[in-house]
Specification:
40 residues, mainly beta, two-stranded antiparallel sheet, 2 strands, 35% strand
């Protein structure tokens, strides 16, 4: 199970840290915010 994700200097992200909880996690945001880039 994925517990957390750290992204440094990737495409539009300079520094991002994501923590996931048990169950269902959802990425939401405006168009062009980078949701698909995280998943790809």
């Amino acid at each position: 199970m994925l517990l957390n994700l750290s992204i440094l200097n990737f495409i539009i992200f300079e520094k991002i840290f994501l923590d996931f909880t048990d169950g269902f996690n959802v990425f939401t945001g405006e168009t062009g915010a980078g949701k698909s880039m995280i998943i790809d």
